[in-house]
Write a structure and sequence with these properties.
This protein is mainly alpha-helical. About 55% of the residues lie in helices and about 10% in strands. The strands form 2 sheets. It has a two-stranded antiparallel sheet. It has a two-stranded parallel ribbon with strand order 3-4. α4 packs parallel to α5 (about 175-180).
């Protein structure tokens, strides 16, 4: 709650009220603030209520109409606060009234569905990535390990080169060994 002080008293803006102030012995509430009155009375603190002076709006044609607008705005504000309070608690409850609160609820519902869809797609893509990584590893192993037939051919090529006393790299590819054997003089 927003507080203003001077040496004689302390005052608060009731629009920012969330709970009774500690150490308070009595409260004077100016205007219609039932949540403030109820909270202090529940805490056992003496509460006095004074009606606030009604000041006519400059240029206002109908005070009753303005009061209706203010009441509607307060109700709208209350509905939005209830929606926000639920969201902060991790819950989403449809407001009972308030055009803006209902529109906000619908929009948040759409966002929630979109996030759920994106999460599902992401999880599916993660599974695909894991499967592809497994395939890449299998292909790497297959490329490094020659088949049994190919291993026999490589051993035969190396034997010919050893017999001719031609040096070659220990990890030479089959193609490079074939080239070296092809370059051997014909006997």
């Amino acid at each position: 709650m927003h507080r203003c002080s001077d040496s004689a008293r302390t005052s608060w803006n009731p629009e920012h009220f969330d709970k009774p102030e500690a150490g308070v012995t009595s409260v004077l509430v100016m205007g219609d603030w039932p949540n403030v009155v109820e909270a202090y009375e529940a805490a056992g603190i003496d509460v006095s209520v004074r009606e606030a002076k009604r000041v006519p709006m400059v240029g206002a044609t109908n005070q009753a109409e303005l009061e209706k607008v203010v009441a509607a705005l307060r109700a709208e504000h209350g509905s939005i606060e209830i929606l926000i309070g639920g969201l902060e608690a991790g819950e989403m409850h449809r407001p009972e009234s308030g055009e803006l609160a209902l529109r906000l609820f619908d929009l948040l519902g759409t966002i929630h569905i979109s996030v759920g869809t994106l999460t599902t797609e992401r999880d599916g893509l993660l599974l695909t990535v894991d499967a592809l990584r497994g395939e890449v590893e299998a292909l790497k192993r297959a490329a490094l390990t020659p088949s049994a037939d190919e291993a026999g051919e490589i051993a035969a090529l190396k034997a010919k080169l050893d017999e001719a006393k031609v040096p070659y790299r220990a990890n030479a590819s089959k193609e490079s060994l074939e080239k070296l054997v092809a370059d051997l003089p014909k006997a």
